[in-house]
Amino acid sequence: MAGNEMDSLRQIFFQECEEQLAELESGLLEIEGGGEDPEIVNAVFRAVHSIKGGAGAFALDELVRFAHVFETVLDEVRKGRLDPAGAVVEVLLRSADVLADLVRVARDGGSVDAERIRTGTEELASLSGTPVATGDLAEEDSVEDLGFTPVAVAFPTFDDIAAELPTEPEPTVFEYTVTFKPHASLYASANEPAVLLRELGRLGEMTVSCDTSSVPALSEIDPEGSYLAWMIELKTTQSEDDVRAVFEFVDGDCDLTITANNGAAPPVEDADFEALLRSIREAPVDVAAAADEPAIAEAVIADVSVTAPEFPVAVPDFAAKPDSAKSESKPDKAEKGDKSASGEAAQQTIRVDLDRVDRLMNLVGELVINQAMLSQRLGEAGLARSAEFATGLDEFEQLTRDIQEGVMAIRAQPVKSVFQRMPRLVREVAAATHKKVRLVTEGEGTEVDKTVIERLADPLTHMIRNAIDHGLEKPEDRIAAGKREEGLVKLSASHRSGRIVIDIADDGAGINRPRVRAIAEEKGLIPANAQLTDDEVDNLIFLPGFSTASTISDISGRGVGMDVVKRSIQALGGRVSITSRPGHGSTFTLSLPLTLAVLYGMVVTVADQTLVVPLTSIIETLKPKPGDIHGFGGEARVIALRNNFIPLVDVGRELGYRNHSTDPGAGVALLVESDGGAQSALLVDGIQGQRQVVIKSLEANYGRVPGIAAATILGDGRVALIVDVDAVVAGSRNGGNPESVLALAG
Amino acid sequence: MSKTILTVDDSRTMREMLLLALEDAGYHVLQAEDGIKGLEVLQDKRADVIITDINMPRLDGFGFIEHVRRDTSHRAVPILVLTTESDAEKKSRARSAGATGWIVKPFHPVKLVDAIRRVSG
Fold first, then answer.
1. Closest-CA residue in chain A for B13?
2. Which residue spans within A212-338 are E strands per DSSP?
3. Would you report the helix, strand and coil content of chain A in percent, each value rounded to 5?
4. Which of A:32-91 have CB within 8 Å of B?
5. With an 8 Å Cβ cutoff, are A339 and B29 in contact?
6. Residue A346 pLDDT
7. CB contacts, 8 Å: B40 with chain A
């Protein structure tokens, strides 16, 4: 097997492992929740079993050993001998975590704490009631493997070794007499005496005679009966065990005797044989692994050359198998094509390189833009009013939109893949904080773009940590408050008006507002006498530099605060908000776009340029009255809004389209929320409308431009820049207009 | 005309592994991911040898073998059971269901092809 084939197999294996681990965990959680469907237990068993099977092929011994112990316990559960209640399922869940770590280590390198594996193994062993000494296990398995083909001939390295073996001494030839009388059951299992005899003939020279004496008269013949017997004289260099191995599958389905005529059959119980067995046992069974590890292959070679003289059993003959399985010939192209057709017939999914999907996505983006341009041009030419054109255009637009949605759906994945990581996190955090926590998830099937999902994992992890560490009370406090001892964290996802909304809710104490206030004051984040609403106090936790943990706890205090969570959500075009009721808990709500390829934007005019402001950052738009605008030292101005003063940012000036400030009264202000929850008003000249735009990376096509997030192409073919609201607001705070984009905009 | 092997296994890794090993040895390969799919494939295709896993969802290896053996058009097809199960009970169950032979995982390509030859010539 070529190296790249092996690599792709490995990749498939690890992908499958992830799926199996997810299956395992969700199955165990269902069992923990009282699910009694035997199919769940079967699925859980199969998951571990599959991982073990694949791991064996890649010689991942540590993984195989642990999976084996785990599987043994699950088999007990499956057979109804072990009740997966309470403590048992907890052990199983912990074991699933260890297994997951072993898989990851096998994939990414590193090591799993040996102590953890040992404890895990012992815990499992105590469940199955069979003390498992981890060391014995692999050996036991490989002995079994070898029992199947008792002689070493089947191992890959021997192919190559044979040539290097000393040619002398001349192998001893043994003579055997074999009598073979099949039972009817041998035929019933589709075994075929002719095939077995031919197989026997491969071992050496043979003469066969058939005993037909038991064949009855034609009228008496039972078509499924067995009447023939054979006697074979065989001259071979192979041992009696090799001869017997030919009949391995039909053992019990026939009368078989094998007699060594010259009485000099090689002793198979020989100590050297044991040594050889041991050396092979330690070699990887996998051909590619062996090929990748010449060192091991050589070790086997060394062993063989030592034992060969006393052990003339199989080795020389093996080299002489010309048409042995290791044919180098690849099937021709036609055959390959044939196979994939039939292979696919049995599969419901195909895997596609992400690049291809993205390329398609990009092209569809172009198509959407083209369609918009065509509509606009036809409109301008007055053609759109004709009924035929109008219908055609409508259909074209509808089709384009359907294609766009279809392609986006390819990139969409259920949030399940992130949600699934959370139960383990909850267990770990709960254990570290000595709290009892139940995690409930809802809407795992909700789909969202793959990239959004990937970037969601970190913020979600952090928020769940926070919910348990800061949100939930200690068990004794909960009991004192008349709540259940076990805290509840609920993670749910749903689609709401073209966005995905994810709620992280806990039934803890809620935000401790006086404390949050005190900390914010102490850290100078707010003035001492600031008048804040409850909502505003709650939102203080999103400010950079805010951390409520009085001691930096191991769990949440990893130098990452809610401000980072908020920023990473905003980077995805999302928003995060919090609602909290003292004594009843808090809910964090994330709202994210379903895709990163299109954006809903407000198309605005600034100094004769057309810009797009992402709708997600806009809270409201307003027409400032001259009386609301106040100077604020230098050129800075603020706008008075509902008893608040909000900094006014002149977008045209900020982006360098003009050097003087424009008259606020003539423009429109967009109230936006930027980094850290601060509000600002972006002053633009006018609003053209709202629309969905296809995002084109400016960095990929031009370069990074301060204050600009990306670009898009409008229906009339013009390029419009998409404003990076955070950057523009931040730029204005730092004195504004540091770098101009005039050159680009021209 | 190369022989056609039907592989029935719920593990994608194992299916791919079998595919590579068998194609390397010049066989033509059909695939199915569980017993039900396996029976579906056999409805309009024929196989010279069937290799099946035991632990599978929906219809496991034992059930699959029993179905194949009841079907007059496939009852004489050799079936190899591919399994990590090392206990004798599994083997004898497979055999009484009608399995022709078995291959213990992890298998070596050479062993795999040996086993196929041993049941199909």
1. A13
2. 229-236, 254-260
3. 50, 20, 30
4. 39, 42-43, 45-46, 49-50, 52-54, 56-57, 59
5. yes
6. 43
7. 346
Query: Does residue B93 carry a pLDDT above 90?
Result: no
Q: What is the rounded distance in angstroms from the CA atom of residue A55 to the CA atom of residue A13?
A: 8
Distance CA A688, CA B92 (A): 78
Mark out the alpha helices in A467-512 (DSSP H runs).
475-480
Amino acid at A268: V
Bigger pLDDT: B16 or A544?
B16
pLDDT band for position B86 (cuts 50, 70, 90)? low
pLDDT the model gives residue A152: 33
Q: Do A336 and B23 touch (CB under 8 A)?
A: yes
Residues of B in contact with A339 (CB under 8 A): 19, 23, 28-30
Residue A652, CA distances (Å) to A602, A664, A736, A739, A740 in order:
16, 12, 11, 12, 10
CA A55 – CA A99 distance, rounded (Å): 12
Domain extents for chain A?
A: 3-148, 154-319, 363-413, 415-593, 598-745
Record: fold of A598-745: SH3 type barrels. (2.30.30)
Residue B23: its chain A contacts at CB < 8 A? 330-331, 335-336, 339
Q: Which CATH number fits the domain A3-148, given the four candidates 3.30.230.10, 2.60.40.10, 1.20.120.160, 3.40.718.10?
A: 1.20.120.160
Residue numbers of chain A with a pLDDT score lower than 70: 1-3, 129-171, 262-348, 384, 497-498, 547-560, 674-677, 734-746
Q: First and final CA of chain B: distance in angstroms?
A: 14
Extract the tokens encoding A164: 């290097």
Chains A, B: CB pairs < 8 Å: 176
Q: What's chain B's average pLDDT?
A: 86
The structural domains of chain B, ordered by start, are: 4-120 (3.40.50.2300)
In chain A, which residues have their Cβ closer than 8 Å to the Cβ of B33? 346-347
Q: Which residue has the tokens 């048992």?
A: A88
What CATH number was assigned to the domain covering residues A415-593?
3.30.565.10
